[in-house]
Amino acid sequence: MIDLLQPGQHPDADQLSAFIEHALPEHEHQQTLAHLAICPDCRSIVALAVPTFEDVPQPQPEPARTPWLSWLSGWRIAFPVAVAAIAALLAVRHYNTRLTPTASAPPTQSAINHPPAPLTPPPSPMAELQPKLTPPKLQALRNTPQPRGIATTAAAPAPAPAPNDQGGLIDSRAIENIPLNGRNFTDLTQLQQAAPPQGTARGRGASTGTAPKPPALSQQVTVSPQSNAVEVSAATAPLLQTQDALAGEALDANVADSSATASISATGAATAALRQPRVSALPSHLPILSTATSARRMLALDTSHTLYISDDAGAHWRPVPTQWTGRATRVDLAISPPTVARAVTAAAAASYAPAAGAGSGRGVTGGLGGGRPQAAAAPPISSAPAPSGNSSLSGIVTDSSGAVIPNASVTLRSPAMPTARTVQTDANGHYAATNLVAANYQAQITALGFEQLQQSITLNSGQQDINNFTLRPGAASQTVTVSAELAPLLHETAPVSSTLRVPAAPPPPPPQPLFQITTDTGDHWTSPDGQTWQRR
Amino acid sequence: MDTASSQPGALVLPLPGAQPAAPSAQTTPLAALPPSLIHELSQTAECESCGITPEDFANVLSAIGTKCNYGLPPATPSDPQQKASFFRALRLPDLALAHACALGREAAWQRFLALYRSPLTQAAIAITGSATLGHDLAESLYAELYGLRQVEGQRRSPLASYSGRGSLLGWLRTTLAQRHIDHHRRTHRESPLDDIDAAAPTSSTEPPPAELTRLTEAVARTLQTLAAEDRFLLSAYFLDRQTLQQIGLTLRVHEATISRRLKRLTGDLRTQLLRNLQLAGLSKRAAEEALGADPRDLEINLRSLLQTSQTPPFSNKTSPAPVASEQTP
Fold first, then answer.
1. The pTM is what?
2. Same domain, A418 and A298
3. DSSP helix/strand/coil, B127
C-alpha cells in the first residue's frame, strides 16, 4: 500500500460501494472511474471492499477478438454482402452471354420441384454461399437430392430456329436443385454449366433424338445479397410466376415481352406472402414433392406420389387418377415442339450446317421435353436463334502467353440478327459459330479474369472465317473496333457458291405447355391438361 | 485522509436525553413526493418493522433524491416519473433499516445486529488479514455507526450517509475499507523511500538527447489522451500491482477480458506512440528505435501522467492531487 498524501475530498463509502456494485448511473460511474484512475487510495479502498472471489458470481469472459478480426469487425456484415454481390455480378455477366432473346412469346409456365427431404438445415446466410462454389461441392449437390428445389423455365420459340443452335432454355434439372434461402447460389454456376453443347438439347426427360434450335432466351441471373434473391431474366417470354410457398421462399419468374424476368427469390415468408398467391394445402395434407404451373393450372405431387391438379392457382385441389405405371416422382413442364419450324429447321440444318452437330426433333430443350443430344462435335453454344446463313466463324481464344482459355464467351452481334449469338470455347479454347448470315458482326469476347475484347468482323456469304482472339489478363474492359468493309481473307476454305437462299420460314406457333411427370421407372408421361396422360 | 469527515449528508442524531434533532434543512417538503408514492415506498421498505414513520422515511428519500439529483446528471431537471423510478430502484429495506439505526431506533438496531454483525466481522477480518485486527476494526465501526461520535452535543452516525443505491452490506464493507485505510495512514505516516519507489534527483546536467525528449513528449501525449477506464486499468495493473482477478472483480468482467483489454491497450499505446513520434518528425524506423530506448533514460513520471485526468474528476469533490515525482523502472 503506497502511503501518498492525497488531500482533498474523495467519493464517500456510499458512492464507492455503489460503484463496486455497478449501481451508479453512467455519468457518476465515469466520474468515479476517473477519480479512481488518479487516486491510489480510493483504488485501494475499492480493492479492499470488493467482495472476495467466492462471494460474487463470476462474469463470463467476453468473446475473444482476434487481432486480424478486430479490423474486420466493421466488415463482418458488409464483407459477405460484398462478396455475394460481386459473385452475382460475375454470374450475371457470364450468364448473360450465354443466352439470347427470341422474337415470340411462349406461354406462361413454370415448374417447382420439392424433393421429399424435410430434414433441411436452417437457411444459411449469404456469406456461406461463396465457399460452396467449389466444384466437388457442386457435384455433390448435383448428385444429392436437395431438400427443396425449384425449376423454372421460360421458353420462347424462334421464328426460324436454326438447327444447330440451341435455345437458352434452362435445363430444369439445372435449376431444380437450386436450394433457396442462401444455398441457391451454388447451383447458379451449375446452371451455367448446364448449357448443352452446340447443336444439342439437354433434357431431363429426353432420351433420343437431337434437338432443333430451341427457343432463344436472354437470361440474366442476379443475386441480391440483401434478399437472397436470384433473378433470372429471360427475354421475350410472358409473365411467369412460380413460387415456393411451403418453404417461405419465393420463386418469381416474371417474364415479359423483350425483357422478361424470372426471379427466384428467397426473401423469406414476408416477401413471399406479398408476391405469391396463396397455395392451399393438398387434400392429403402431405408435403408437396413437386409442382408445375401453367397459367392458373397447377399440378402438385405429394410425398405419397399422388398427383393433384388445381385450376385456380392452387386454391383448390383435386386428385388426378393414376394413368401411368410406377410412382410419379416428379412433375414439371414440357413444351410441345412447333412443327412447322421444326421441319424447316431440320432441313436447314441438314443443308447448311452438317458439321455443326445438327439436331432435329424437338424444338425445346431438355427440361421442357427436348431430346438428348446425339453428338456434340463443336464447342458448346448457347445462344439465340439467328437468321440462318452458311457462314461460320471459328477460332481459338488464347491469352497473351498463348495458353488457351476454356469457357470464354464469344458473343456475336449484328444488325442483321435480331438477337446476339453466343458461343463458348471448349477445353481447347476453340469456338465455332456456324450458320451465320453474311453481315458485319461485333464480336465480344469475355472470360473471367481477362479483359473484355471487342472486335468487328465481316462475314461474307459462305465464308468460313477463322478468327483467333487473344485476351489480356485483367479486369478492365477494353473495346477494339476494327472496320472491315472489304471482303475478308479466306483462311481455310475456298469460297463456295452461296446462291442458295433459304425461304423464310413462317413464324412457328407458340409452343403449348405440356405437363410432364417422371416416374420411378424413368418413364415420362405428358399431358396437355394435366388430366389425361400418355407415355412419351 | 479522514473520509468520514468528508461525508456529506450525515444526520445529526440526538443523544439519549437530548433534544430530538430538528428536521434537516436540506430535505425538501413532503409535498414534493406524492402520498401514494410515499405509501408505496414505505410499504416496500417495511418502515414499520424498523420503527421509522413514513414521514421520516419521506424526508430521507427527499434528501437522497436531492443529493443524487434523482440519478440524473447535474443540473438536469427531473420529472415525477423519473423521481419515482429513482426511488423504486433504491434498496428500500436496507435504506429504511440504515436510517432507522441512524435515528436510534432500538428495533432497527436489533435487526441490524442480527443481519450484519457476523458478515461485518468477517469482512473486517478479510480486509485486515488478521482476526484480531478485524475484530477491532469491526467493533470500532460499530461504535461509530451507533453514533458515539458527537458533534455539538449530538451524535452522528455514518449510516445516515447511506443512500440505498448499493447494498447495505457493500456500504459496510466499503466503510470498513475506508477505516482501515485511515488507520493505516495514521499509523504508517513514515514509509521507507524504497516503498514509494521515489527516484533520486538526477545529477546529470546534460540535456537529454533529442530523441529521448521526443519520446518523453510522445509518451506524455499518448497517456494524456487515454480514457478514464484505460487509465484505471493501467494504474491498477502497473502501479498498484493488482491482479487481473482483482481488477476483474472491480469492473465486473472476467479476468481474461481484463487481460485482453490490457493487451489491446498496450498495443494501441505502442501504435499511438509510434504515430506521435512520427508526427514529431521521426521516421518510422527512428521511431521504432526510439521505442527501444531504456526507460530509465526517460525523464518521465508515468504515475503523474496516468493520474492526470482530462475530464473533471468526480464532480467537484476531488481537488487535484499533487503526487510525488517518481520514475518508473
1. 0.40
2. no
3. helix
Indicate whether A71 belongs to any domain: no
Whether the pLDDT of residue A403 is over 70: the answer is: yes
Is beta strand A328-335 parallel, antiparallel or unpaired with respect to A513-519? Answer: antiparallel
In terms of average pLDDT, the best of A305-314, A467-476, A500-509 is A305-314
* Count of domains observed in chain A: 3
For the residues of A286-297, what is the DSSP string, one character each?
Answer: PPEEEEEEETTE
In this structure, is residue A53 part of a structural domain?
A: no
Which residues span the domain enclosing A22?
14-48
Q: Report the alpha-carbon angle A159-A162-A165, nearest 5.
A: 120
Is A428 among the domain residues?
yes
Q: Do A6 and B321 touch (CB under 8 A)?
A: yes
Would the pLDDT of B1 be above 70? no
Residue A108 has pLDDT above 80, yes or no: no
Residues of B in contact with A36 (CB under 8 A): 232, 235
- A95 and A27 assigned to the same domain: no
- The CATH number given to whatever domain includes residue A427 is 2.60.40.1120
CA distance B157 to chain A (A): 13
Q: Which residue has the higher pLDDT, B226 or B20?
A: B226
Note the pLDDT tens digit of each residue in A115-158: 444 434 444 333 343 434 344 444 444 444 444 433 333 333 43
Residue A516, pLDDT > 50, answer yes
Judge: B314–A58 Cβ closer than 8 Å, yes or no: no
A325 and A202 within one domain: yes
Cβ atoms B179, B191 nearer than 8 A: no
Segment 299-318 of chain B within 8 Å of chain A by CB: 306-309, 311-315, 317-318
**A288 and A151 in one domain?**
yes
ipTM: 0.73
Q: Three-state DSSP class for A423? A: strand
Q: How near does any CA of chain B get to the CA of A187, in Å?
A: 43
Question: In angstroms, rounded to a whole number, what is the distance separating the alpha carbons of residues A174 and A159?
Answer: 26
* A69 in any annotated domain: no
For residue B169, the chain A residue with the least C-alpha distance is A17
Give contacts of B11 with chain A, Cβ < 8 Å.
none
* Identity at A51, one-letter amino acid code: P
Q: Please state, in angstroms and rounded to a whole number, the distance separating the CA atoms of residues B152 and A295.
A: 99
Q: Are residues A286 and A184 in the same domain?
A: yes
Nearest alpha carbon to residue A251 among A305, A138, A350, A170: A170
| Sign of the torsion angle spanned by Cα atoms A38, A44, A49, A50 | positive
- Distance between CA B61 and CA B41 in Å, rounded? 9
Nearest CA distance, A431 vs chain B (angstrom):
55
Measure the CA–CA gap between B207 and A512, rounded to whole angstroms: 97
The whole-angstrom separation of Cα A36 and Cα A19 is 11
Contact B175 A13 (CB under 8 A): yes
Enumerate residues 75 to 114 of chain B having a beta carbon within 8 A of any beta carbon in chain A.
none
- Rounded CA separation A82/A307 (Å): 43
B311–A1 CB contact, under 8 Å = no
